[in-house]
Description:
This protein has helices spanning 46-57, 82-99, 111-119, 149-155, 171-178, 182-187, 207-215, 235-250, 310-333, 379-389, 393-399, and strands at 4-11, 17-24, 31-36, 60-65, 105-109, 128-132, 157-162, 165-170, 192-197, 220-224, 271-275, 284-288, 291-295, 339-350, 363-374. The protein is an alpha/beta fold.
Amino acid sequence: MAPRSEKVTFAGANGVTLAARLERPAGQPRAYALFAHCFTCSKDVFAATRIAGGLAERGIAVLRFDFTGLGASEGDFANTNFSSNVADLLAAAEHLRRAHEAPKILIGHSLGGAAVLAAAGKVPEAEAVATIGAPADPAHVRHLLKDSIADIAANGEAEVAIAGRSFRIRKQFLDDIAAQNLQAAIGALRKALLIFHAPRDQTVGIENAGLIFQAARHPKSFVSLDDADHLLTRHEDAIYVADVLAAWATRYLSRAPAPALADDAAGDEGVVVTEAGAPGRLAQIITAGGHRLTADEPVAAGGTGTGPSPYDLLAAALGACTAMTMRLYADRKGWPLQKSIVRLHHGKIHAEDCANCETKEGHIDRIQREIELVGPLDEEQRQRIVEIANKCPVHRTLHSEVLVETSLKR
Length: 410
């Protein structure tokens, strides 16, 4: 089952109906995210649709919506400002809170990034915030209006052409952005922050990313978007942001395994491991059987701890196979096994310390496995289930000769 996109409406801050789309993953979402689009854009701008869709493929539901007076939302854009955008964001968060669950991830593009930074402190459930090409000060958008500022000041409003479209901007908009103190909001964030910015961004300069980063407290991260443009109009740039966002956010989500990906996701290729690119140089994205997970090394080993280590995954494979084998056997026998818990630890020991090992020199790998069986089983049943655990396919593989053939794809 592939991710799906649903039309949604909810009441905005001023009571008008706002239009939105909820990108839902196949199966139960790992978490919900809220996406705020760029200044005078809409929820359907390419960056918003592609990033939201990419996150849904990775198990994260995303609500993207049109601010008041934009896209398919009701209301008069001329009556809006930065403060009303923040209020609309909070209304969107409240909609998710009531209809599903509150967003754990807030994502904002351009001025939408500034808006999520301002709103984040009022969404207590949010654990992570990501900005894409965001200005460090909402007043940055004045440069888009520079040819009309005098008319706005003299007449109270003016028609302004932005990205080929005409918008009515009133003086209250300029007054509102001038009154914002985003630096204080960033300093008080106390949530994980990921800053995406392109060094060659011609709309919002890279210095804005530096100002946001300096104002924020840890944990904070910066990811360069290389030669991407401000609107992420290239398909590969939006995909990259979705990949990195999903890998990074996993660290801050309490809900574990990701649900299945879309039907057309990698599956026939077996297991595919691809470098995530960020956070950290060791993070990997693993696609297996239509599912996606991450691998990394702990900080002490040079990684960023965004996922289990390769040896943890090896132990997990043995543990999962052990539990499945015991379950199948107990069910076939009709034994009252209510639950099994398998605890594993991988390490290395001196070969001379292993009396039953063929290797007598150097070090050998040791996996310690502890099995807990819950249920009214008698001792004979318990011992038999443990014997069967040693016959699980992964256990046998680890004890047999394994041939790994490596080729270079050209």
